[in-house]
Amino acid sequence: MRKLADALYSISISLWVGGLLAIGYVAVPVLFAYLADRSIAGFLAGNMFAIGSWIGLVCALYLLAYLFRRHGRQALHNPVTALVAAMLLLSVIGQFVIQPIITGLRAEALPLPVMQSALATTFARWHGVSSVLYLVQAVLGLALVVMQDRGRARDSST
Hints:
The protein has about 160 residues and is mostly helical. The chain has 4 helices and no strands. The protein has one domain. The longest helix has about 35 residues.
């Protein structure tokens, strides 16, 4: 059973971080490069980010459960736990705070595309905040990949 838990630990990190990078820095730029209608590209990108966020939430919950099961209260002193918690927090903020604001701005701008409306500046500001938080989450994810063995090791100082 322990080998399965260890395998799921690695798979969760790979799925979460790989998804962040693949969606944010490969798939979404391709959508905007090849779709003439930026509104459709934005709609598809938003859906991809939402799916990626839910995957990240599930992975984060598994990773935290794994770390606390493996290390008990010592998990609180493990840098891997801090990375997972920070990434989870950023994901929650993005999914449940910023995305509803962005969605609301799009709806309020109708029938115009939001970037052709009076809300374009506000939308661009929130989109920028979202992009920065996503970048920070991706960088933390790369650190998590590099440091993942610290979460598996019995002695969290290794």
